[in-house]
Structure formats: structure tokens, C-alpha cells
Amino acid sequence: MTKGAAAAILGLACLSANATVFTANLSGAVEAPPNASPGTGTVTVDFDVAAHTLTIDVTFSGLLAGTTAAHIHCCTALPETGTAGVATELPTFTGFPLGVTSGTYSHTFDTSLAATWNPNFITNFGGGTIAGAESAFLAGLGNGQAYLNLHTEFAPGGEIRGFLQPVPEPATFALLALGTPVVLLAARRRGKRRN
Predict the structure, then answer these.
(1) What transmembrane ranges does the database entry give (predicted)?
(2) What is the 8-class DSSP label of residue 88?
(3) For residue 149, which of 52, 46, 3, 32 has the smallest C-alpha distance?
(4) Residue 78: exposed, middle, or buried by beta-carbon count in 10 A (0-12, 13-18, 19+)?
(5) pTM for this entry
(6) Quick count: other Cβ atoms within 10 Å of Cβ 1?
(7) Phi, psi (5° rounding) for residue 96?
(8) pLDDT tens, 132-160?
(9) Which of 17, 31, 72, 174 is most buried, by CB atoms within 10 Å?
(10) How many CB atoms lie under 10 A from the CB of residue 100?
């Protein structure tokens, strides 16, 4: 196998790794500052920029007080640390269950609508346009600079949160499974030729 073929296989794997699905585990330990909440949760975000859809699925339980708001913050200065302003609609997601300590939520937003976004996010990160906000949000998600935050009466600044991380598409694993042995074999053959 040539170096070009190996590079092509790895390139295809990397291309399909540009996931539009992101996930996080939510906890008080990830809050800034951390808190001792026994609350936990999970979130899956599917962001399709071409279709202008943002689907958010959240499950949470064990909060110390009733929910007051939920949204996604973006973009922190460094991945997986710090705080950022709210990127999505204010004061909370449409239809999010409020005043509860456990629950589920699923909603699909139209990201071509200004109402989906915090106006400050459109201005400060999107260059004043919704398309810019979509691009900045996708970059923040991909770089680990966006987090879902659940705010409660116990912790108005956020009781549990989690930084969203890309979920590789199944095709990525298949390409890597097929490509890795080929790349290793090529490297082995090249090493034998040098000896």
C-alpha cells in the first residue's frame, strides 16, 4: 500500500469523524464552581447546520431543588473549563420542565430563527448573523467549548452541567477498523525495507 492510499483511508476516517451529534454527562462536580449536588443527567444534541435543526434530548434526576432554566452556554475560552454566556434561547428552552427535580426533555429547534438564539450570542459570536451564530455554535460544540447547564433554586448559576463532546459516526469506527491494519502493515513493510 502506498503512503497516499494510507493517507486517504485516514482522511476518510477523519472526515466522517466530523460528527453533528454531541453528548455529555451532567453533574455538580463539573459546575463552576463545583457543588455537591447528587443530581445527574445526560444530554444528546444533534445539530444539522444544513437542515437548520438542533435536537436536544435531556434526562436528569436527583436535583436538590426544582429546575428554573436550562440552556446551552458557548463558547468558553478553553475546552471543558470555565464559563460562557448562554448561546441558545432565553430564559430557558421552550417546553423545558420547570420546578422539578427529575425529568426528560426532547425538542427540535429551527436554528434559522433568531428566537432559537440568545441575541448576544448572535452579536458577539455570530458577527450579527444567524448563519454566523450557527457556525460559531458548531465550532464551539466541536471544540468542547459548549455545555448544557441546568439551573435550579438550589444553584441559580447551575446545579448540574456537562461539556458536550462529539460522538463519532458508526462509519468512523468501520473505517478505522478497516484502515488501521492496512496502515500498520504498510509501516511494517516500510520498516523491513530499511533493514
Answers:
(1) 170-187
(2) B
(3) 32
(4) exposed
(5) 0.78
(6) 14
(7) -65, 135
(8) 999 999 999 999 999 999 999 999 999 99
(9) 72
(10) 14
